[in-house]
Design a protein that fits this description.
seven-stranded mixed sheet, four-stranded antiparallel sheet, 0% helix, mainly beta
Length: 112
Amino acid sequence: QEQLVESGGGLVRPGGSLRLSCAASGFTFSSFTMDWVRQSPGQGLQWVSDITPRGDAAWYADAVKGRFTISRDNAKNTLYLQMNNLGPEDTSVYYCREGTVRGPGTQVTVSS
C-alpha cells in the first residue's frame, strides 16, 4: 500500500527557512515524478513544485521560484523541500504527492 508521510513543518519567522521531508513506502519511489502541494484554510490545493524520477529536472510555481528547492534521495525513498526566505503567504499545510496519493501533511506557519 502506497504511503507518504511528511515531516519538518513548524513555526518560523519571516525570512526564515525550513526543510520538509516526505518518507515514501509501498511503491517504487524511484520510478515516479513527485510533487509538493500546499493548501491554506479556505483555499484550494496549490501546486508548489515537482521533480522527475531521477531528480534531473524540477519545476516550481512562480510564487516560490528562487526560494524553494525540491530534491530527492531515491536510496532513502525520501523527497525534500528546502524553503528559504519564508513569508506569511507561505503559511499552509504542505503535502507530498504521487499521482492522486497524498500524505497527511505538515503545517508550516510563518509569523513574527
